[in-house]
Amino acid sequence: MHIVIAGAGIGGLTAALSLHAAGFEDVTVHEAAPEIRPLGVGINLLPHAVRELTELGLADRLAEIGVATAELAYFNRYGTPIWSEPRGLAAGYAWPQYSVHRGTLQMLLLEAVVERLGPDAVRTGSRITGPGDEDLLIGADGIHSAVRAHLYPGEGPPPWNGLVLWRGVTYGEPFLTGRSMIMAGDGTQKFVAYPIETGERTLINWIAERPLDGEAPDRGNWNRPADLAEIGRHFADWRFDWLDVPGIIAGAENAYEYPMVDRDPLPRWTFDGVTLLGDAAHAMYPIGSNGASQAIIDARVLAYALARGDLAAYEEMRRPATTALQLSNREMGPEVVMKLAHERAPGGFDDIEQVIPLAERAEIAASYKRTAGFDPASLSERSSWSVDRSAVS
Question: Oxidoreductase: present as a keyword of the record (predicted)?
Answer without folding.
Answer: yes
